[in-house]
Design brief:
about 475 residues, Rossmann fold, 2 domains, 16 strands
Length: about 475
């Protein structure tokens, strides 16, 4: 009867990524959700109304008071990771934020949950003291982490940790995270086996694993991608260079990603070749910060940096929609969206400037690829237009593995959430498949009919 009274607590609940995964596993909402951010609690509350919510610092929540004497089966912790992450760069860190993970020890000592799961960036294992000027002490790297592990062991917990990738468990993102599992009930710590894998590997070709889900799956193809040549405010030189490099790498090859568009931009658009560009990242002259859509999306941050770039293609038919490369070019007009401008734009990638002024002679013709000739399964196409738009929040949440019905644009009172807040919740979230499979593997008794089959489990030696 003990299991009937046990509760589940999600500390640092955020917008509800871990809670959603836990609910997928156990078939009900978490009992207690704690987070200091009102916007995060608002998103969590509208999706998990049955949970008891505490909008305050985890240190201000008394574990004895909120649990009301009920035993705790699972305590989930996702403390702020930015002061461990390499994405922090060379900026000073805050000791208070790096120390948030210690709240797990407080729960271990006071409440003794059967299972504790802690999620963070992989650099969490480097947790150590910081210097007087606010930087991690390189001579004491990992010292605090070891102290933290030993403190849990002194509370009677077996402890193990591992890095997992979300794409291996059915989320269309490669997001890698550190997980620590600690349990005090004497049962073995169990790590879930991957359910998905690289489509090129034997486990997938032999159908033992499903292929990774791809970035292309989460794109909302019903949304139009505005032409980069018809913008009220022209794109910056760096952005144009980035798009040009992406087109050369991801479109001007024999197997570009062809998107399943549901509309046509103009009368001559037969195909759309698409890729993702990382819009707000710095790039060297030799680097392409982007990716094809046939792989999982890269890690999603708290600020949207992903732009969908579409190259609208028309079948190559001599001078009908373009010109033969063996004949003089048609007149390049000064305005509008036309093939001459696209060719000038693509030419610029190989030169010192961004592109040719439309009132100047076109740059020297050298190779077909230089002017946007695309081959798709033996068929020749020309680029007729280039579109770009930032990914929408619902696409980013889908990439994290959230279910499509998850509410992200309003709170329980109907108040709208701005896109920036939606994206921030997404970037800070735990991909739900992580929590789903970790809970199924380690607490199958809570899952009932949702239980985790033994053939999908992998026991590791306890540390």
């Amino acid at each position: 009867m003990k299991l009937l009274n046990e509760i589940v607590v999600d500390n640092f609940a955020g917008g509800g990524g871990a809670s959603t995964g836990i609910e997928l596993a156990i078939g009900r909402s978490v009992d207690i959700a704690i987070n200091h951010d009102p916007a995060a609690i608002a998103m969590h509350k509208v999706n998990h109304p049955e949970s008891e919510h505490y909008c305050e610092s985890v240190w201000d929540v008394d574990p004895r008071e909120v649990t009301k004497g009920r035993p705790v089966a699972l305590c989930w912790f996702s403390p702020d990771c930015k002061h461990f992450s390499k994405a922090k760069g060379g900026k000073p860190v805050q000791k208070e934020i790096r120390g948030l993970a210690w709240v797990a020890l407080r729960w271990a000592a006071v409440i003794k949950p059967r299972v504790i799961i802690l999620e963070n960036v992989e650099e969490f294992v480097t947790w150590g003291p910081i210097t007087k000027d606010g930087y991690p002490d390189p001579k004491q790297k990992g010292r605090t982490f070891k102290t933290f592990v030993n403190a849990l062991k002194r509370q009677g917990y077996a402890v193990d940790w591992k890095e997992l990738r979300a794409c291996d468990y059915g989320a269309p993102t490669i997001r890698k995270r550190f997980f620590m599992i600690a349990r005090s009930d004497g049962k073995p710590i169990t790590w879930p086996k991957p359910t998905h894998g690289d489509p090129k590997t034997l486990p997938v070709t032999a159908k033992r694993l499903k292929p990774w889900r791809t970035a292309g799956e989460i794109i909302d193809w019903s949304l139009k991608c505005p032409s980069i040549f018809e913008r009220e405010k022209p794109l910056s030189d760096n952005t144009l260079k980035r798009i040009a490099k992406g087109i050369v790498k991801f479109v001007l090859n024999n197997e570009p990603y062809i998107a399943p568009v549901t509309h046509k931009t103009n009368d001559h658009t037969d195909e759309v070749a698409a890729f993702l560009a990382q819009y707000y990242t710095e790039t060297s002259s030799h680097e392409v910060r982007g990716q094809s859509l046939d792989m999982p999306i890269y890690t999603i941050p708290t600020a949207n940096r992903y732009a969908l770039v579409t190259s609208h293609l028309v079948k190559f038919k001599g001078q009908e929609y373009g010109i033969s490369l063996e004949k003089p070019f048609h007149t390049v007009t000064a305005g509008g969206n036309n093939f001459g401008e696209i060719r000038a734009f693509l030419t610029s990638y190989y030169g010192a400037s961004i592109g040719s002024d439309c009132n100047e002679p076109l740059h020297t013709v050298t190779t077909k690829d230089r002017f946007g000739l695309v081959t798709v399964k033996g068929e020749s196409y020309q680029i007729n237009d280039i579109g770009m738009r930032m990914l929408e929040p619902h696409e980013l949440f889908a990439a994290q593995g959230f279910p499509p019905e998850y509410i992200i644009d309003r709170d329980g009172d109907g108040n709208k959430m701005p896109k920036t807040a939606q994206v921030a919740r997404c970037g800070n979230s735990v991909p739900p498949p992580f929590a789903n499979y970790l809970v199924r593997a380690n607490l199958p008794e809570l899952c009932g009919d949702h239980g985790y089959k033994e053939e999908h489990q992998m026991e590791l030696k306890l540390v």
